[in-house]
Every structure is written in C-alpha cells, then in structure tokens.
Design goal:
The chain has about 200 residues and is α/β, with parallel strands linked by helices. About 30% of the residues lie in helices and about 35% in strands. Strand 7, helix 4 and strand 8 form a beta-alpha-beta unit. The structure holds guanosine-5'-monophosphate. Guanosine-5'-monophosphate binds next to strand 2, strand 7 and helix 4.
Length: about 200
Amino acid sequence: MKELQERIRQEGLILSDTVLKVDSFLNHQVDTKLALAIGQEFKRIFQDKTITKVLTIEASGIQFAMAAGIALDVPFIYAKKKKAVTLAESVYSAPVHSFTRQETYQVSISQKYLGPEDKVLIVDDFLATGAALVGLVDIVRESGAELVGVGCVIEKSFQEGRGLLEAKGIEVHSLARIASMSPGQVHFIDELIPTT
Ligand code: 5GP
C-alpha cells in the first residue's frame, strides 16, 4: 500500500534496527482516514473469502480490526490482555510473549463471541516475532472456527513472524513489508498483493 509506505518514510521513527515508532499516525494518534483505507485494503485482499468475524488483540490492533469490520460489514472482537471482572463467563485463552514489553501475558476472549460457525480474519498493527498472532491463531483453533487468514498493517520481514505463521499453513498479507531498516532509512519489499 503506497500511501502507507510513504507515511512510514515521512513520519516513522526508527529507534533501532528492529523497532519502528509510528505513533504519530498509526498506533497512538491515529489518522482515521488512513485507518479506514487500511480496512478497505484488507477487504480487497480477502474479497474472495467468506469472513464472519475480524479478530485482533488490544490495544493497537483495534482501530484496524474495526476498519476491516466496517469494510466487510461484520463484527470485530479484540482479545483482552487482562481478565476483567466483567469477563466472568468461559473464555478461550493463550499465552503471548510481548516483543516490545518483554513480558508474557495471557490473552482471552469470551467463548460467547467465537465458535465453529465462524470464519475469522485476524488483523494486527505489526507482525514482528509473530508471538501475538500465534496466540490469536491458538484461540481461533480452540474455538473450532475456521481461520481465513492474517492481515497485518506493517510487517518487519527480517523477523521470524511470517515464517512461523506460514509454517502453520496460514495465509499472511501485510500492507507494508519492511526488508530492513536503520535510523533514517527504511527498505520495503515491494510486491503486488493479488486480488484473487
Ligand atoms: P510480535 O508478537 O509479532 O513480536 O509483535 C506483537 C506486537 O508488538 C505488535 O502487535 C505491536 O503492537 C508490537 N510491536 C512489534 N514490533 C514493533 C515495532 O517495531 N514498533 C511498534 N510500535 N510496535 C511493535
């Protein structure tokens, strides 16, 4: 997605060879028009698939899962990182190790909102080590729902996440794939995402 690549080049802060900060337009302050365009792009990419739910993880996947849900006209669910007292019913849960926070936490969703009848698109802001998405994949599998694919806004292709997901037979599409980066420089893997 060209517009996204341009914004990353203009506004992304490369804090190290592995950490990119995009909080002026993606995951702290959010450019709402861009977020909605991202949702439309996920719809275009997965247009030949039936999708009944979009699933993400709090907090920074929420705006993109909502945008995809709006585009696809289906609900979205976000996995919670802490079990709230209001989440008293049975849950699906999985452990996730956080790359940015360097800690392991349990993510969960209510069993009420996902089941064998569902066809799920998982969406997130970043694909890095893949730990967060593997946690969501485990939740989808536990629920008996069908996993249609994974859509990421930014993929750091030099990290192991894509390989981990593809090894599980999962279709992965990322809107901006970073081949390498260093302070002041970012290189993208340019590829056309097929429409069928
Ligand atoms: P993963 O589980 O794939 O390692 O990364 C999961 C989460 O870590 C992403 O959803 C994202 O919130 C955060 N993350 C990973 N790498 C980066 C990065 O370079 N920049 C930012 N801002 N967040 C990241």
